[in-house]
Specification:
Blueprint: H1 8-26, E1 39-40, E2 46-48, E3 51-58, E4 61-66, E5 73-74, E6 77-78, E7 81-86, E8 93-98, E9 101-108, E10 111-117, H2 122-125, E11 140-157, E12 164-177, E13 180-188, E14 195-199, E15 213-217, E16 225-229, H3 267-272
Antiparallel strand pairs: 1-10, 2-3, 3-4, 4-7, 5-6, 8-9, 9-10, 11-12, 11-16, 12-13, 13-14, 14-15
Length: 277
């Protein structure tokens, strides 16, 4: 069965159901829309207006000093005085609680950071969904995954100037769009065997976010066949907030074709008149 064999009503309803689930995740009280600041730690102790404690990092990892009149709960246990989070792995993190807020302690691009998440933050409280292109079966494309002999460490830039991310690329995906052969370097997805494609295209900086969009791809079939449903291309956190460290796509992952499918520039960016990455 191909996508053209699927009843149009069923196709659109499945897409609508997915959109509802996706936007529910975006609206989570402690999701990335709730982030109120990003704080880069150093060996010099420092405090932040939107988080309890005095924070620092060093060879032994992140530590915090919590005063008696402050609250921080780590793994269900109230912390008082000095607490060490230890060395946090790259792209790892810990979520601690403070009242109705969550304090994210993480490591991104070789730097330790603290990002408080407050449910009442206006960006989250006023979230009204994400503008999207109407779903089209024309943007459900069959492709082929070609694995590398061994995963290739791939360094990409970040929306934060000077920051870099390194990911292992297990292979690439070939497909046709706009009458042209296309190829995108792939990274590992969230579930075993699945893939993530970071890309830009001819709509980037016009109707979609300039820096990147992301497409999740289910694990390839035994013959390498994959399905690319660009109707489900989504924005990364940096499309909504400047308090993110999102990766940029590899240089080769720019599509000359206009992918008029998936999420558009968020209302918040359009209202601010900004298309910058």
């Amino acid at each position: 069965m191909t996508i053209q064999d699927v009843d149009p009503t069923t196709f659109e309803q499945e897409w609508a159901d997915w959109r509802q689930r996706h936007e529910a995740v975006l609206a989570d009280p402690h999701g990335f829309l709730a982030i109120t600041s990003i704080n880069w730690l150093s060996e010099d102790p420092q405090g932040f207006a939107d988080a309890p404690g005095i924070w620092a990092t060093g060879p032994d990892g992140v530590n915090v000093e919590i005063a008696e009149d402050e609250e921080l709960i780590v793994a269900g246990v109230a912390v008082r005085g000095r607490h060490s989070f230890g060395v946090i792995p790259e792209r790892g993190g810990v979520l601690a609680a403070s009242g109705d807020a969550v304090i994210e302690v993480a490591r991104r691009g070789g730097y330790d950071i603290v990002r408080p998440r407050h449910p009442e933050h206006p960006l989250r409280a006023n979230f009204a969904g994400v503008p999207v292109y109407p779903p089209s079966r024309d943007w459900v494309i069959s492709g082929r995954y070609i694995p590398f002999a061994t995963p290739r460490p791939t360094t990409v830039g970040s929306v934060v100037d000077g920051l870099q991310h390194v990911y292992d690329a297990p292979g690439f995906v070939e497909f046709e769009a706009g009458g042209q052969a296309q190829r995108l370097t792939a990274f590992d997805g969230r579930s075993p065997g699945s893939l993530t494609l970071l890309f830009t295209d001819a709509t980037s900086g016009v109707t979609t976010y300039a820096a990147n969009r992301s497409l999740a791809v289910a694990a390839p079939a035994h013959d390498g066949t994959v399905t690319l449903d660009f109707n489900r291309a989504v924005n990364l956190p940096c499309a909504f907030t400047d308090l993110a460290t999102c990766p940029l796509p590899p240089a080769e992952n720019h599509l000359q074709v206009a992918v008029e499918a998936g999420e558009k520039l968020p209302y918040e960016r359009a209202d601010a008149g900004g298309l910058a990455g």
